[in-house]
Specification:
The complex is a heterodimer of chains A (90) and B (487).
Chain A (H helix, E strand, L loop, with lengths): L1 H7 L5 H17 L2 H4 L28 H5 L5 E2 L2 E2 L10
Antiparallel strand pairs in A: 1-2
Chain B lengths: L3 H9 L5 H19 L2 E4 L1 H16 L10 E5 L26 H8 L3 E6 L33 H8 L5 E6 L5 H7 L2 E4 L19 E6 L2 H11 L17 H8 L9 E5 H4 L5 H16 L3 E5 L7 H16 L20 H12 L2 H14 L5 H21 L5 E5 L15 H5 L6 H6 L3 E5 L10 E5 L5 H14 L9
Parallel strand pairs in B: 2-3, 2-4, 7-8, 7-9
Antiparallel strand pairs in B: 1-3, 4-6, 5-6, 5-10, 9-11, 10-11
Helix pairs in contact in B: 2-3, 5-6, 7-8, 7-17, 8-17, 11-13, 11-14
Classes of the chains: A mainly alpha (90), B alpha/beta (487).
């Protein structure tokens, strides 16, 4: 659970860890039947869309950066602000 | 509030103005919200403005079927300038920076946005109990769930506050609430409707669809917003139809005579609530009397739908929801200390996603992780191919597949929240169509006078929405005791 929580970037409180772990175990157990299916040579179906259509290579008007950044929790001068991520020499 | 067909008639004949109808709708929406908790936001000022514009356009000769008609929008679909929360605390302050494709189309058609409806968080749920603002109640029985995840939209229509609403369907989230609330709901073919401006849950399954008091409402809604959109690479170039106009044209001549309807054995063998079984039997009798040919057939891999669906949708969701990180979008965790970037992500998401969302993200993360990808996600995608092939084969010989929409009627609030598998079982009949991408409709059937709404589900070949809408419309007109046009 700790590894999953880290991979998913979802912090779990103690109570939750046990509850979610139990749920996941129960759910995955019920999916055992899938392991018994003979799927040799079957091509996976990942998406139902038709062949990808590329649009014409012309410049279109993008959405405004300022408008999109209005939903940022902390922004400064057109950038998203977070704590220091680079080690300082000092 | 009149049903859509009646509202359209009244508006087009100028017997009522859009302003009057919208005022009625707004009052009814406030009442519905107070009793059922079905709205997150009622857009009063803009709705009145849109209604006045619609009346102005009508006075200048415009008379489209949706002009001036009030509708509700599930809060997973962006409407510029309004909050769009996806039913989640993490987006409680998020304001939509642009309109979804479907909203643009409805604006052009002159429809009036009355409110944003409540939903299960990020579309994950079958009861509308996973909303960050509390559960929605079923208008038919307020101790019961309206279904989910489009429970707010279903309740808004069923309560009579609007005759039209938009929902989204990933595994049954339009059809099952439509069934529980006694209204009509359609999941279009995958790719029929643009997902531009729809917050993604599972990108290979999600579809926006119409929910309405009648099939005619669903048809005119679909006509307005279906079709190719370059901004959604998965939207289909198969031409869309004038579903509403065609429905009216076909109404007097459409018949069940000669139509072949198959009952998939894997769905027949499920355990159904008594009232659902009884109504299903009555509906089959009705079909036979109307001249349809009923057959049983096998969709052999459909019995693996639950596992296939939940492995695929949670995997896709774990990727789609990674954008809600407390930095670019989403509520940031409050903290006294200076958090590292990873801590901002982990705490913001941990604190602001609900339990079901956290569970599904972790399940999806597990299914995609190194060492498990082949055994879970890839395997589920292979099983999906087999289910798709089952459907393809069946439609070589039949026109429709039929089942009840759900094994049960609306259940009591709180009765399934502690057992996720029990909750997931509510979608057993709807999941297969989602996996195959075929269109499916749920409409209320009351031949055996059930004590609460029972929905019948018809499925049809890819891009056959017209058949489904005509069939549902035909049923509502051919049944005795058809309503007087009011919800």
């Amino acid at each position: 659970m700790a590894k999953l929580s880290k991979l998913a970037r979802v912090e779990l409180q103690d109570g939750d860890q046990e509850l979610i772990s139990e749920r996941l175990e129960k759910i995955l157990e019920s999916f055992d039947s899938l392991q018994t299916l003979n799927l040799d040579g079957v091509e996976p179906l990942y998406g139902l869309n038709e062949e990808m259509h590329l649009r014409d290579d012309v410049t279109t008007k993008p959405l405004s950066r300022d408008l999109l950044m209005e939903n940022a929790s902390d922004s400064f001068d057109g950038a998203y602000r977070v704590g220091r991520v680079v080690k300082s020499d000092a | 509030m009149p049903k859509f067909s009646k509202a359209r008639e009244l508006l087009q004949s100028k017997s009522i103005s859009s302003l009057e109808l919208t005022q009625e709708s707004l009052a009814a929406s406030k009442k519905a919200h107070a009793e059922l908790n079905c709205y997150y936001e009622i857009c009063e000022d803009t709705a009145l403005g849109e209604a006045r514009s619609a009346d102005e356009l009508r006075s200048r000769g415009e008379n489209g079927p949706l002009l001036g008609v009030p509708y509700a929008l599930k809060d997973l679909i962006l409407a510029k300038g309004f909050k769009c929360t996806a039913g989640s605390k993490i987006l409680e302050n998020f304001v939509a920076p642009y309109d979804a494709h479907v909203v643009e189309k409805l604006q052009r058609a002159g429809a009036v946005l009355v409110g944003k409806t409540s939903m299960d968080e990020f579309g994950m749920g079958s009861s509308n109990e996973n909303s960050f603002r509390g559960p929605v109640r079923n208008p038919v029985d307020s101790s019961c769930s309206p279904g989910g995840s489009s429970g707010g939209s279903a309740a808004a229509v069923a309560s009579g506050s609007v005759s039209l609403a938009l929902g989204t369907d990933t595994g049954g989230s339009i059809r099952q609430p439509a069934s529980f609330c006694g209204i009509v709901g359609l999941k279009p073919t995958y790719g029929r409707v643009s997902r531009y401006g729809l917050m993604a849950f599972a990108s290979s399954l999600d579809q926006i669809g119409p929910m309405a008091s009648d099939a005619e409402g669903c048809a005119f809604l679909l006509e307005a917003f279906a079709g190719k959109d370059d901004r959604d690479a998965t939207s289909s170039s198969t031409p869309s139809l004038a579903y509403g106009q065609e429905l009216l044209r076909q109404r007097s001549s459409w018949s069940w005579k000669g139509k072949k309807v198959a009952l998939p054995r894997e769905l027949l063998n499920l355990s159904y609530e008594d009232e659902v079984s009884k109504e299903f039997a009555a509906f089959r009798d009705y079909l036979s009397k109307e001249g349809a040919q009923l057959v049983e057939l096998d969709l052999p891999h459909v019995s693996h739908s639950l596992a296939t669906y939940y492995l695929i949708c949670t995997s896709e969701a774990s990727s789609n929801l990674s954008r809600y990180d407390g930095v670019h979008v989403g509520k940031r965790a409050a903290s006294e200390e200076n958090l590292s970037l990873d801590q901002i992500y982990a705490k913001s998401r941990g604190q602001n996603f609900g339990l079901e969302v956290r569970t599904r993200i972790l399940l999806g993360t597990y299914a995609l992780s190194s060492g498990y990808y082949d055994a879970y996600y890839r395997r589920a995608a292979q099983a999906r191919r087999m289910i798709y092939n089952d459907f393809k084969k069946s439609f070589q010989s039949v026109d429709f597949l039929l089942s009840p929409t759900s094994p049960e009627t609306a259940f009591a609030l709180g009765s399934k929240t502690s057992d996720p598998l029990k909750m997931y079982a509510s979608d057993l009949c709807t999941l297969p169509a989602s996996l195959a991408g075929v269109p499916a409709i749920s409409f209320p059937s009351s031949l055996s006078s059930p004590s609460r709404p029972v929905g019948m589900q018809l499925m049809a070949p890819w891009f056959s929405e017209m058949s489904l809408l005509s069939a549902a419309d035909h049923y509502s007109h051919s049944c005795e005791g058809a309503s007087d046009g009011h919800i």
